[in-house]
C-alpha cells in the first residue's frame, strides 16, 4: 500500500472512532437535518441578510484582507528607523497581541459609540478580527523579510533601484515562501475565532448553533454540527494553502 493509502486508512479509522463516540450521545438527527440549511446559509435572516456559513466566510475573508494590510504596514514600522513609525507599530502589536480578542471586540462594539461612531455588528466583528490578527501577522511579515539575506538588498541597491521597488521586486518574492505557511495557519485560527462575534448578535454559525440548541434543549446536536462545519472549512483553507505553497520554488535563497 502506498504512503497516501496508509494515511487515508488512518484517517478512516480515526473518523470511525469519532463517529462511534458521537453515536453514544443519542443524537436527534432529525433536528440536525431541520436546522442544517440555516447553518449553511440557505435561508436569509428575517431582515434579508446572510447568515450561517456565508456570513462566517464573509467576516473571515474581509478580515483576512485588512489584517494582511495592517500586518504588512506594522512589519514595515517594526523594521523602520523612524521612531514614530517604530513606536506606533510596537504599541499596536503589543496591545493587540497582549489582550484577548473578546475584550477587543467588546471595546470596539461598546466603546466606540461613546466616542461618536456607532459601528454595526458586522463592521465591529471585521475590525476586531483585523486588528487582532494584523498584530500577529506583522510578526510573520517581519520574520520573513528579515530572513532574506542582506546581500539581496545590497545587490538591488547597487543597481540603483528605489527602496520600494527593492521590497516589491526582490525582498517580498523571496520572503513569501517563508510567510505563506504561518500566514495560512493564522487565517485558519481566524476562521475559528470568528465564532466570538456571536457575542455581538451576528447570526453566524456559532450564534445559530447556540440559539437552536437553547430553544430545543439539544445543545450537543447543534454544537457538533457547528464543529463539523468549522472543520470542513478548515480543510478547504488548508487545501488552498497547500496549493499556494506549491507555487513557490523549494530550496534555499
UniProtKB/TrEMBL annotation:
The keyword Nucleotide-binding does not apply. One of its GO terms (biological process) is amino acid transport. The keyword rRNA-binding does not apply. Belongs to the binding-protein-dependent transport system permease family. HisMQ subfamily. Coiled coil: none annotated. This is Amino acid ABC transporter membrane protein, PAAT family. InterPro entries: AA_ABC_transptr_permease_3TM, ArtM/GltK/GlnP/TcyL/YhdX-like, MetI-like, MetI-like_sf. The chain crosses the membrane at residues 48-76, 88-112, 118-136, 219-240. It comes from Insolitispirillum peregrinum. GO terms for molecular function: transmembrane transporter activity. NCBIfam families: HEQRo_perm_3TM. GO terms for cellular component: ATP-binding cassette (ABC) transporter complex. It is found in: Cell inner membrane; Cell membrane. Keywords: Amino-acid transport, Cell membrane, Membrane, Transmembrane, Transmembrane helix, Transport. Its main location: membrane. Residues 53-241 form the ABC transmembrane type-1 domain. It is a multi-pass membrane protein.
Amino acid at each position: 500500500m502506498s504512503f497516501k493509502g496508509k494515511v487515508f486508512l488512518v484517517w478512516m479509522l480515526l473518523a470511525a472512532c469519532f463517529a462511534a463516540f458521537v453515536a453514544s450521545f443519542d443524537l436527534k438527527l432529525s433536528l440536525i437535518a431541520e436546522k442544517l440549511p440555516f447553518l449553511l446559509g440557505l435561508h436569509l435572516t428575517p431582515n434579508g441578510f446572510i447568515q450561517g456559513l456565508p456570513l462566517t466566510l464573509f467576516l473571515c475573508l474581509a478580515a483576512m484582507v485588512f489584517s494582511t494590510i495592517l500586518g504588512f504596514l506594522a512589519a514595515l514600522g517594526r523594521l523602520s528607523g523612524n521612531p514614530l513609525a517604530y513606536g506606533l507599530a510596537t504599541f499596536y502589536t503589543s496591545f493587540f497581541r497582549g489582550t484577548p480578542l473578546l475584550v477587543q471586540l467588546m471595546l470596539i462594539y461598546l466603546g466606540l459609540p461613546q466616542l461618536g461612531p456607532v459601528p454595526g455588528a458586522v463592521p465591529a466583528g471585521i475590525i476586531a478580527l483585523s486588528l487582532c490578527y494584523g498584530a500577529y501577522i506583522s510578526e510573520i511579515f517581519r520574520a520573513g523579510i528579515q530572513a532574506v539575506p542582506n546581500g539581496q538588498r545590497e545587490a538591488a541597491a547597487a543597481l540603483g533601484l528605489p527602496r520600494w521597488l527593492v521590497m516589491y521586486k526582490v525582498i517580498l518574492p523571496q520572503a513569501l515562501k517563508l510567510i505563506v505557511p504561518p500566514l495560512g495557519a493564522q487565517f485558519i485560527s481566524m476562521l475559528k475565532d470568528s465564532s466570538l462575534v456571536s457575542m455581538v448578535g451576528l447570526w453566524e454559525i456559532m450564534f445559530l448553533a447556540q440559539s437552536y440548541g437553547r430553544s430545543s434543549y439539544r445543545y450537543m446536536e447543534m454544537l457538533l454540527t457547528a464543529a463539523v462545519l468549522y472543520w470542513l472549512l478548515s480543510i478547504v483553507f488548508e487545501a488552498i494553502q497547500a496549493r499556494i505553497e506549491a507555487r513557490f520554488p523549494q530550496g534555499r535563497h
